[in-house]
Design goal:
- By secondary structure, the protein is mainly alpha-helical.
- It has a single domain, classed as Arc Repressor Mutant, subunit A.
- The chain contains six helices and three strands.
- The chain has a three-stranded antiparallel beta sheet with strand order 1-3-2.
- Helix 1 packs across helix 5 and helix 3 crosses helix 4.
Amino acid sequence: MTSERTVGPEMGLLLRLAHQRAAREFTRALASLGIEGRHFGVLTTLARLGPASQTRLIGELGSEKTAMMRTVDALEQQGLVVRRPVPGDRRARTVELTPQGRKRMAQASEIAQEVSAELLACFTDAEQATLRDLLVRFIAVDSPGFTVPSIVSPGTLPGPPHL
């Protein structure tokens, strides 16, 4: 006996609507901090990696060069990141969190956890774990070796680099 899988054409629509709902709630919640989801992505990535080039951030976040430049510019204007020259390369810059950026990232991380809990409250813990595993597998098809970076908890933020 074989079982047939039937996935209707609505799957793409359902994924898009789920993304829109999550993005809308996350954007609303982050507004009190003066940042958006794209800013949060850069802040959490820098907290995880430490100082990184814009090229590395683009690769980590699947962003476009122009969009990343605008995002880093906005974060720099708010005093959340700083660009520093790379020794030996006059054109290259690394981006790193400032102390204010670490604080804002910690606040945003708490908000992200609250929003995720609210969004997924309709699922049991086991269903949430299954959904996460399925989404990771879905993403990994196009990104072999993909792992979900854990959001850095406020107590484990890297400190400023020691020079």
